[in-house]
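task queued by scheduler; priority normal; single chain, no ligands, no partner chains; default sampling; output format set to structure tokens
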Amino acid sequence: MRELKAAEEVVINGKTMREIIDESTSQQPVILTGAELQGVNLNFENLPDANLWGAKLVHTSLCQANLKSAYFMRAVMISVDLSGADLTEANLMDSTIIGGNLEGANLTNANLIGADLTAANLTGTILRGAAMHGVILRGANLTNADFSGADLTNSDLKGAIMKDTKMKATNLKDTKLEPGDGEAKPSGKSSSILQRLFTKK
């Protein structure tokens, strides 16, 4: 198992990650634009409105972190653990989260337009009302994920696992869909919704 570095061990622009977090306020949130965070333990950290535009996060863990309204536009996140994190209304537009773990995360009303979540784990993830135009979810695990009211226009869900995935009032216009094999296929409710959408003249 990969050993993660504590926030006290990571130095960015002359300050440790712990100092940066502890000195932040609601008026002056954490700013880490373009930062490189590799193998850092940020579990349970309070980072609302944090600015990580263009940041690179590799093997970094943000389990159950508070990332409400955080800004991850064009961030590159490889094998990042965001399980249980609160990303309500976060901006992840054009971000890359390949192989990321977002199990149980809350992305209600988040902006994921153009994001790449290839092979990501979104088991039980809440994505209600999320903007997801053109998102890539190839091979992603969407088991029990809730996309109610989300906009998946022009998204790519080929090979995605869609067991018991909730898609009430979800916009699937021009979505590429080719569910995974076997038990990974959509549940009856999801299938009927998709069939109505794609057979509608």
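post-processing summary
- Residues 181-201 have pLDDT under 50 and may be disordered.
- Helices lie at 17-22, 188-199.
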